[in-house]
Amino acid sequence: MKSTELDLANTSPSDQKIAIALFGGDGSVQDTYTTTLPAKAQLVSRIEGLFPSIPPGFSGYAVAAGRQTLSASSFQWTNTTVTGIAAQAINDVSLSATSLYAPQLGGSNIFNNLAAFVI
């Protein structure tokens, strides 16, 4: 069985709303999860804990977004292996062409920083 753990940390001094969108392999939105993450707090959860309706063997990706700086990492688990992506700050300064993360233009209802996770 395969599972992905998402680890997000709010590194800012104030609470922030975060949203995690789950996409299928075809790019269609399967589900969304939103929460308010307190200042200096973290969210650690396996993908099936955030999205209990996904079927076993689901393949796709998740995108986490917030309006302030986040730190993100993930682990992929199988019966015999674990692989991880080290924590990286997600902000306008840390983004590059080879990065896993991509910026999104800000606006009153749009998140400024994104992190993508392969599931």
Name the descriptors.
single chain, Hypothetical Protein Tm1070, Chain: A, 4-stranded antiparallel beta sheet, 8 strands, globular
For the terminal residues, how far apart are their CA atoms?
12 Å
Order of strands, widest sheet: 4-1-6-7
Q: Write down the CATH topology.
A: Hypothetical Protein Tm1070, Chain: A
DSSP summary: helix tally = 1
How large is the share of residues in beta strands? over 45%
Net shape: globular
- What level of helicity do the residues show? under 10%
CATH architecture: Sandwich
Mean pLDDT: 75
How many strand elements?
8
- Using only C-alpha atoms, the radius of gyration works out to 14 Å
Q: How do the SSEs run, as a string of H and E?
A: EEEEHEEEE
Low-confidence stretches: 95-114
Notes on the protein architecture:
- It contains 1 helix and 8 strands.
- The radius of gyration is 14 Å and the shape is globular.
- It has a single domain (3-118), classed as TM1070-like (Hypothetical Protein Tm1070, Chain: A, Sandwich).
- The strands form 2 sheets. The protein has a 4-stranded antiparallel beta sheet with strand order 4-1-6-7. A 4-stranded antiparallel beta sheet has the order 3-2-5-8, with no helix packed on it.
- The two termini are 12 Å apart.
- The longest helix is centred in the middle third of the chain and has 4 residues, at 47-50.
- The protein is mainly β and 119 residues long.
- The chain has one helix at residues 47-50, and strands at residues 3-10, 16-24, 29-37, 42-46, 60-66, 70-77, 82-90, 113-118.
- A hairpin with a 4-residue loop joins strand 6 and strand 7.
